[in-house]
């Protein structure tokens, strides 16, 4: 079936470097995407979202890029900090309000001091 | 800042016993979701409520799982009887409409 997935299960970066976490999706009907951060033993925490009528959105230290042609989503974290260490999930829905989020399997980001 | 509340945070039970989890969404959020997250995987939807009505329970194992949101505010998820494979994190989320969902801290269930 159609699903959201991630290319890399673990990403290790040095503190201060930029991080890029990638996600491939297969549901071409999806029109809304979210990145969540989940720390150990906690619920997912919203980072940033993007609708399909956009290809880039920026937040504080984070940028999400959406390439609908190749169905690819990425999360860029600038100047990665130790507090950024967590599992990151991309998720999608059709934006109808009646469809829950479909999550990928996650990428673990490890920030080395 | 308003948050989704869940209890208990941890639950250990023996197989064949009944368990119940409680969720209080952010005030005013009409949509409430229950997700199950197996260790190392992303959350998967169990049931979605719009006010007090179920709008999607296609992934809920109805032979043992039940969920209710009687007054359209807080919600209870029950498992009876619990099985070993039910060990997971049970997450509640709420939203005020299409888009961002706010998650609670989850209930970690261990079935022995």
Report on this model:
The complex is a heterodimer of chains A (113) and B (112). Chain A is an all-beta fold and 113 residues long. Helices cover 0% and strands 53% of the residues of chain A. In chain A, strands 2, 4, 5, 9, 10 and 11 form a six-stranded mixed β-sheet that branches. In chain A, a hairpin with a 4-residue loop joins strand 7 and strand 8 (72-77). Chain B has 112 residues and is an all-beta fold. Helices cover 0% and strands 49% of the residues of chain B. In chain B, strand 9 (88-95) and strand 10 (102-103) form a beta hairpin. Chain B starts with a strand and ends with a strand. Classes of the chains: A mainly beta (113), B mainly beta (112). Chains A and B meet through strand 4, strand 5, strand 9 and strand 10 of A and strand 4, strand 5 and strand 10 of B.
Task: Summarize the entry for a quick read.
The complex is a heterodimer of chains A (113) and B (112). With 113 residues, chain A is mostly beta strands. Chain A is built from no helices and 11 strands.
Structural descriptors:
heterodimer; A: 113 residues; six-stranded mixed sheet; 11 strands; 0% helix; disordered N terminus; B: 112 residues; mainly beta
Largest interface, chains and sizes: A-B, 26 and 27 residues
Determine the structural class of chain A based on helices, strands and strand pairing.
Answer: mainly beta
Report the end-to-end length of chain A measured between terminal Cα atoms: 40 Å
**Stretches with pLDDT under 50, minimum 5 residues of chain A:** 1-8
What's the total number of strands of chain A? 11
Going by helix content, strand content and strand pairing, the class of chain B is mainly beta
Element pattern of chain A in H and E = EEEEEEEEEEE
**How much of the polypeptide of chain B forms β-strand, as a percent range?**
over 45%
